[in-house]
Amino acid sequence: MHARSIAAALVVGTSLFALTGCGPDQASSTGTSTTTDKPVGTGEADEGASEEKAGDEKAGGEKAGDEKDETAALPDMTGKGLQSAQDQAQAAGFYGLTSHDALGRDRMQAFDRNWKVCSQTPKAGDHSTDTKVDFAAVKLEETCPAQDAGAEEPRAAGVKMPDFTGKAVKVARAALDSGTSITVNDASGQDRFILMESNWQVCGQEPAAGAKLDGRPVTLSAVKFEESC
Length: 229
Fold this sequence. Notes:
- By secondary structure, the protein is an alpha/beta fold.
- The chain contains four helices and eight strands; from the N terminus they run H-H-E-H-E-E-E-E-H-E-E-E.
- Among the domains are: 71-139, Trypsin Inhibitor V, Chain A (2-Layer Sandwich); 169-224, no CATH class.
- Strands 2-5-3 form a three-stranded mixed sheet.
């Protein structure tokens, strides 16, 4: 009887030891395994951040579009000095500016203050600020022509000789094929060197207007624009 009591006590003690040993450790192990799961709410936060970023990008795109389509009032620059006209156009928000020789002599406007505006394209009014503004100009001491003679690029001569009478030597040279042999003589008989061809006008030409070019050499006689042929 005494032996049975001892055996029963040993069985109870062993069972308690087993329960005590596995309880805390197993609970800790089980808890550890659950911590590897993605925290609750992280996916929603990421999704919200992505939507916010997309919204910012959309707003930025709309803002850029608004800036691109911005319009402003372009003043009338007729009669103003070319430099002043360019400054006022930029102050109004127009930065795509260009100019050309209104007399059709293809001169460069190297010193803007020495030129004045005869007309402008487009005319004064509301325009997109991306619009290119072109000023037709002459030198300060010159009179604006009734019609802009420099609005179009010089036309290529083609197969027939054009009539260059009264046009700048520079314009005539630009119209002829780049491979054409060209000789320019002083029509005044003073045998002057013709350095700035935009300042000289054609008085005579060989071959005559309408003749077939076909690679023939071209001879031009010219005087300065303030001189008579």
